[in-house]
Amino acid sequence: MVDLMDKKALTLAVGGMILAGAAHADAQSRRDGRWETSVQLLYSSSENFSGDRQSEVDIDSDIGFGFGVAYNFSQHLSVGGEFLYLSPDYEAVFNTDESGLVSVDHEMDVFSGQFGATWNFLDKAFTPFVSAGLGWTYVDSNVADGPPVTGCWWDPFWGYVCDTYYDSYDDTSFSYSVAAGVRYELNNDMLLKATFNHTEIDGDEGFDPSLDIFKIELGWMF
């Protein structure tokens, strides 16, 4: 039910942007030679993928956030970077040497940073665009990969302090993405973007997961 409501909200937001842009389709853009930054609301769809030795992972849909910065070299071309964060629930089956098939039901943390380029098809305030990027994606399973480790240190305020922590299974992998969307610039140097993004992750152990992400962005040009 929540998943359906999220999709409806994103659909309404994108539809509103298209209608607003259509009403001002001939307005000239002022982005040439300017920087822009944005905050992003993300919706990632559920995913399922398989790896080696009967391993399998089911990732639930999730709401996340991100931010980006870019420089517009012209009305059409911009280059920049973005950082995204998601924390979806997942169920996984891993084939281990010690215990055979092991099931896990947990929540992962996903951090992704990419640099890329965007091409705006029109030199207007409202324009469709495409983009592509390269970077890295860090995935933390939040599942301990061994026994706890206790460390102690001297704190100038609290005295001698000890704490216990766990290392977890995690991985940092090369990733790349392609995206398409629409952009609308408001009269006060603010901008709105609606984007569909597909990211491929070059994982280990035969896992090469992908993420489909819908983004709504609110940005500022300066």
Short characterization:
The chain has a domain at 34-139 and 175-221: Porin (Beta Barrel), CATH 2.40.160.20.
Distance between the termini: 40 Å
CATH class descriptor name of the domain at 34-139 and 175-221: Mainly Beta
Structural class per helix/strand content? mainly beta
* CATH fold assignment of the domain at 34-139 and 175-221: Porin
| Poorly predicted runs | none
Task: Produce the secondary structure layout.
Blueprint: H1 2-23, E1 35-44, E2 47-50, E3 56-59, E4 62-72, E5 77-86, E6 89-96, E7 100-107, E8 109-120, E9 126-144, E10 149-155, E11 159-165, E12 168-185, E13 190-201, E14 210-221
Antiparallel strand pairs: 1-4, 1-14, 2-3, 3-6, 4-5, 5-8, 6-7, 8-9, 9-12, 10-11, 12-13, 13-14
Write up what this structure looks like.
The protein has one helix at 2-23, and strands at 35-44, 47-50, 56-59, 62-72, 77-86, 89-96, 100-107, 109-120, 126-144, 149-155, 159-165, 168-185, 190-201, 210-221. It starts with a helix and ends with a strand. It contains 1 helix and 14 strands. By secondary structure, the chain is mainly β. Helices cover 10% and strands 64% of the residues. It has a domain at 34-139 and 175-221: Beta Barrel (Porin). The strands form 3 sheets. It has an 8-stranded antiparallel barrel. Residues 19-222 form the Outer membrane protein beta-barrel domain.
List descriptors:
222 residues; mainly beta; Porin; 8-stranded antiparallel beta barrel; 4-stranded antiparallel beta sheet; OMP/PagP_B-barrel; Porin family protein
